[in-house]
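Need tokens for this chain, all 393 residues.
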Amino acid sequence: MSATYLMPTYNRQPINFTRGAGSWLYTKDDTPYLDALTGIAVCGLGHCHPQITDAIQQQAGTLVHTSNLFGIDWQERAGEILCTAAQMDSVFFANSGAEANEAALKMARLYAHKQGFKRPKVIVMEQSFHGRTLLSLSATANPKAREGFYTLDEDFIRVPFGDIAAIQQAAQDHDEICAIFVEPIQGEGGLNTAVNGFAYLEDLQAECEAHNWLFMLDEVQTGNGRTGKYFAYQHSNARPDVLTTAKGLGNGFPVGTCMVSGRANGLFGAGSHGSTYGGTPLASRVVHSVYDVLANSDIMNNAVTEGLFIRETIVDTLGHHDISSRGAGMMIGIVLPEDMDCSQLVNRARDEQNLIINVTGGHVIRLLPPLNMNRDESTQVAERLIDLLKPSF
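Here are the structure tokens for all 393 residues:
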């Protein structure tokens, strides 16, 4: 690539896209690429969805920003529909998933402070990913992301994902635990799901109830219809005290939220937290528009149907090569043999199949296609992946 003034914080692929439409990205010469990653679960409604584009254009020509020193009508409206969809009571608007998670972790500390804890601890999971701000990075397990940043490790207790016995042991070993913070499905960690599925969340909530801890869910990636429900926890009977989301919340527009109910209600007051850009009229109108599309269509059911079709097509064809799948809805993990060389799969998928994918957890192909992908496109995703993998066996 040519010389750049940008900091080298990303290992960028040697390709630029100039436009997008639905499930497709296009280079300058108009070569189409089938996007099965959607900006890492961001453009859940596909690129340049007409209703979202129209909302952005209209609001950009009306009012973009006033700050939270004043009432913001679109923020009130977006807050109401989000809390209704999530079964939560109130919401704080941020700019990203990391900021939403930072708010949640600050809230856990404040909750502990009100109980007189001197050095509170939050239980988090091995292989988790919660963001790159210092506190959310400390909660994250990824060693590459953490290296060199003097993370606040004493503030967290890390246990294996899906292991309730480990949480019960932690409760015996530590006096000042104040919360559990967990992703319903671990995205960066390899699309990991608990053995008992979403019922795991009910087990976690039971532990929180027993010990008077906050039950906090990171749905930055799993929220906004990605798994076939508006929020992944709604596949269970669990209900969090704190719920964060971002990514698909704005379909590409940067916005995040931290919502509360139960024990977390009323923790934040005036001056407890803030954001210059959080919940601007423009961001809030986009959130409202994304909700409107999801709530008034069959898109979330489509995500379940097409996601299962992609998984079954690939496993039916390649399952005898020790390939399996996991995930929910359009959050798909294609699990490859651990001894398989996956280092060039992303490049080969792009260059040989014009397919945009991701590999996470070392040997798991992560697919995060648009929730409204049609059957022809789903077939192409499956067939292009099969064609990509077949020569490896």
